[in-house]
Amino acid sequence: MPKDARNQSPELDPVIHPINRLRICATLYSAGATDDRQMKYSTLAELTGLPADTLSKQLKHLEGCGYISRAREYGSTRAKDTVWVTLTEAGAQAYVQHVEALKAMTEGL
């Protein structure tokens, strides 16, 4: 291994790094809510412990970066709508790389 390669640590993803976004990505990833599988917004809010306004703001940012996608299933009233959240393939890859970078940092690489 070249000397320079040992001194380079994997990069943290600045999109995922803030704790609330990391919590969201970790929850979706660990639940398997990627590409073909989805998680209800209400379930995601419950599992992350984030208030609705915070969760919505963070999802908007993640969606703008292409890391998650959202779909709305319309009910008879807006209160009965269901929002589904999915970690995209790009989001899942970014999350895995971010976790690997954190592991490398903690192992002193």
Automatic annotation (TrEMBL):
Give all residue intervals belonging to the Winged helix DNA-binding domain. 21-105
Pfam entry (one)? HTH_34
**UniProt-listed Gene3D superfamilies:** Winged helix-like DNA-binding domain superfamily/Winged helix DNA-binding domain
Q: Which domain of life is it from?
A: Bacteria
Q: Which InterPro entries match?
A: WH-like_DNA-bd_sf, WH_DNA-bd_dom, WH_DNA-bd_sf
What protein does this entry describe? MarR family transcriptional regulator
The organism named in the record is: Corynebacterium hiratae
